[in-house]
Structures are given as C-alpha cells and as structure tokens.
Amino acid sequence: MVKYLLLTFSLLANILAIPSEKSIKSEIKEVTVFQNGAQISESSSFSLNSGETVLTIRGKSPYIDSKSIQVKGYGEFTILSVNVMSNFLEEKINSSIDSLSSILNEEKISLQKLEAQAEVLREKMTVLNTNKNLGGQNNGLSMVQLKQALDFFEKEITSIKNDEIANRQKSNATREKIQRLEKQLNENANKPITPVNDIIIKVSTDKQVSGELSISYLVSNAGWFPKYDIRAKDISKPLQLNYKAEVWQNTGNDWNNVKLKFSNANPQKSGVVPDLKKWDLTYARLTTFDQNGVRNIGSVSGTVTDSDGMGIPGVNISVKGSAIGTSSDSNGRYSLTLPSSAHRLVYSFIGYRSKELIISSDLINVIMEEDIQSLDEVVLVGNGGRQFKTPSLQIRNSNSSKPIISESLELETTSIENQTTVEIAVDKPYTILSNSDKLLVDLKKYELESTYEYFAIPKKEKDAFLMAELVNWEKYNLLQGEANLYFEDTYIGRSILEAESLKDTLPISLGRDRSIIIEREKIDQNATKRLIGSNYTESRAYKITIKNNKSSEINLKILDQYPISIVSDISVNLLRSSNGNVNKETGIIDWVLNLKPGEQKVIEFAYEVKYPRKEKVVLDR
C-alpha cells in the first residue's frame, strides 16, 4: 500500500512540475531605425500563477536576429530562458492573393456574360437567315416593300456583325487577363510558406503575481537613408536645408503609433579594432589590384528581378562604403544619385543572395538568385533550452501590386548625440506599415550660414555651377546623402551632400546656371611646332570667353591647366596666364572674376613644351 502511495505522489509531483503554457501579447512601443536594420522595443503585461510558466508571444517578424534578443522582467518572477521558434501554423492574411482571387472571379463572370451574349447574337442571325425568303414563293413584293425589307435586313445584320466583333474583342481581352491572373496566383501558390517567429519565455514564481516584460531585438529588412532638400532663394540669403529620412520596412509586423529614432550606427559592422598585418612586397606581375569601375557616372537606375523576370520590391540598393542608398519600388525599379567616390553597388534582400556590382554604366539591371539555407535558432538566456531550425525564407511584398506612395510629414524631432553615434528622435508617435513603401519623414530644418560662388572648368564642362560653402556645418550631424536642389523656387536637379568631408567649410553644388555663357577655344595661330637641334618645341594657347547674362553681379572662379612633366627630357614652360593663380606642382590655373550684369571678359593662357625629336607627346586632351 505504501508503494502505491509513493508512486501516486511521484506521478502527482511530475505532473505538477510540468510548466503551464500561456499566450501573451506584446506591443511595439519604440523603433530605432538603422541604415540597414532596426531595433524593436516591445512591452507586455500579464499575470502568473505559482510555478513555472512558458509565455509565448506569437506572430513576430521572421527576420529577427535571435542572437540580439534581450528580455527584462519587472515583478516577483525569474526569467529562466528565452527562445525564438519558427511557426508555420500561424495564419497570415495575404491581401494580395485575396485581391487577385477576387479580380479573377469577376473576370470569369464577365467572360460567362460575354459568351452568353455571343450565343444570343448567333440565335438572332439564325432567325434572320430563316426568314430570308421574302414574301414566299407565290406572293411578290412591291418595290417599296422590297426596299423596306432589304433596309431592315441590312440594318439588323450590320448591327449583329458589329456586336459580334465587339464581343469577340472583349472576350479575347478577358481570356488574356484571366490567364495572367491565374499565372500570378499559381506563382504565389508555389512559393514556400513563410513562417512567423514566436518568442518563448520560460519564467518561474512561487506565488500568484502580475508582471511586465520589456523585449528588444534587431530585425532586418528595414532601413533608412538620409535625404535633403536644399533651397537657395538668392545668393544674398542663407541656405535652407531640410533634413529628411527615407524610411522603409517589410519586416512582417506593422509599426503602429510607435516612437521613432533614426540612428547613424551600423549594428551589422564589427566593433573590433582592425589588425595591421605584415606587408609582403612582391613583383608587380604577381600583384593583383581591385578594379574600381568607371568613374564620372552621376546617377544609376535599373530594375531588380527574380529568375522568372518578376520585379522584386523592397530590395536594398546601397553605394558600398557610403550612406547613399535607396530601395526598389513595387515593380522592382530604382534610381540613385551617386557620389564621386562611388565604385560599387550592393543589392541585398532577405531570401536572395546579395550582389555586389561594379558601377560600369548608368543603367544596371540585376537578377537576384534565391538563397536556400537554414538558420539555427539558439538559446539566449538561462539553461535547459532547445535548438530549433528555421527553414529557408523567401519573401515577396504582399502588396507588390500597390503603387508606391511617398509621404512627407513635418514632425518635431530631437537630436541625441551619444558617445559613438547620433540619433534623431521623432517626438510624436508615427505609423509605418510593413509593405516596402518608401516614406519621407521630415527630421530637421536649418538655415545655414553660407557663402556663394560660381565655379567652372570649361575644359570639362561649359556650364557654370553655383557652389555654396557652408560654415560651421559640423554641429548639424549631417550624413552623406542625396539632395534635391531648388534655386529661386525652381527644381534644378539632384546632387550629393558630402557630409564626410574633413574641410572647415562644406561645399554643396547647387547645379548649373545657364545664364552664364562660357566658351573655351584653342588659338590655332599660336599652335606651332619647331625642330631645334635634337628637340621639338611645340606650343599651345587657349582663350576662354565668359559673359554674364544674369541681372545680378556674380563672382566666378575658372579652373584650367597646363601639363607638368615627369620626365627629365621633357620641359614645360608657361608663357602667359592672364594674371591667374598658378600652382606649379599641379599645373592648375585659377582665375577669380567679378562680372557685372551683361559684362563679358576674356582670359588666355599659353605654354610650350620641349621634347626629344625621337619621341611624341600628347598636348591636346
């Protein structure tokens, strides 16, 4: 009897030791958006009975970095472990598929109506053909009756034939649309099921309590890029700079009414100090160099597609080594202004292999390849946890058929300068849906002290560029980014704000000014070539004409050059320079001109080169 009692008590103890399970809800309260990724902060309230309880928070983003999860508890309980587990059973509504199915059903009903209409038209034609025998065999018709009958048949047959043509065209168009819709639905149906993540937290308490959890984690498939609107009313007033964030997210969870922060930190980059290794010098023929692509490409655009040729929305496109970037729209298209240092573009999207391409053209179309691999989920806190496998993910924007809408809201913000990073906090709550749409959020507006000067290199470009030099720009915590330029309330193009400059003043190009006419020409009569002894002496001369067609006075800086010899047998002599400032080490000549409205000025420079007769030099470039 004692044995039976002991066994009963042992079974009851084991049953009581099994932790209870409880589903709880958490709410996203704050999001810190990095240029690649975001940190989500959530909170949850709950009640607990005594003993161990497994708390499950369901339906979280499939893009959680499980190694980044931090959970803090507030109350008289202990957190034993934290796990992240993929959940394939959680139902998620795909509004895109539901919408396509609804449209497909409507088109099928339309086709049925068109087929019924075609049958009615065939019946009408049969009735007319049956009654073609006018008046029977023995009864003749008068001319008036015959004409009326012929007019009737002509009118009815013409009407039926026209209706048949229209019906056939509509039916063919409807069948084609049905085929396209069925193909799209079949493609979506064949895609792998995307799991959501459940956060599983094991806690323990010795009494009935209420508690709260604070949860934070990193998530990918989100980011922001700095954007600017730069406005100059005229060159006598301060420059107006509107600092914006182009933010996007396709994490699987909407950010509803959350506090936003935009950070210049990059949590994906290692914080470990690099090591300087031994430099082994070898022959040049055994040395490899990184080819940096083609320079002087001002912007690039293209389309990002999958292997089936379908555009992929929300692909992250960034200039390697910079803060410049954008994301593809609902059709996979993108456009990006490039800084002068740009050499490579990086294309990345969850479920696809990242691509890094040399910028060799202003049009780059990219085909992304699926990345099939598994991710290990790990135990983060406590002990006794299990490991879970997450299958490969392939995500397509569920609202990819929706056009992209850019929204700009002016919000109150606060700059927070930490020890190593800068954050801009949006003071009012904000909502960003998980649909890859790009939204523009106004962060700050500044009036910047600046000086203005026109700048031209007629050897390269005949146009003059208006440059603004920003003073004390370091205190604004600006990042390198694309800028829309406005001068005198007119949009004049895009440029790059190079906020990583080491200069005391930050130069910003405000674009071309067509009202300043510049011509550079070679003076042919001064282009001579003479043989003196064993050397040739060859000369070149150039004339630069500038006219100010503006209604205001301007200051214009002109740059040109003459060659500098790096060979002892070649000598270069600058003959004249129209009082320009000459840098004898670089061969750069600059002239600073003041031109009144309608004024025209001419500057000239000339040089001669002496070189051995057995050699050739290139003087025209």
From TrEMBL:
SUPFAM superfamilies: Carboxypeptidase regulatory domain-like. It comes from the Bacteria. Residues 97-191 form a coiled coil. Residues 31-128 form the DUF4140 domain. Residues 213-613 form the DUF4139 domain. InterPro entries: CarboxyPept-like_regulatory, CHP02231, DUF4139, DUF4140. Keywords: Coiled coil. This is DUF4139 domain-containing protein. It comes from Belliella filtrata.
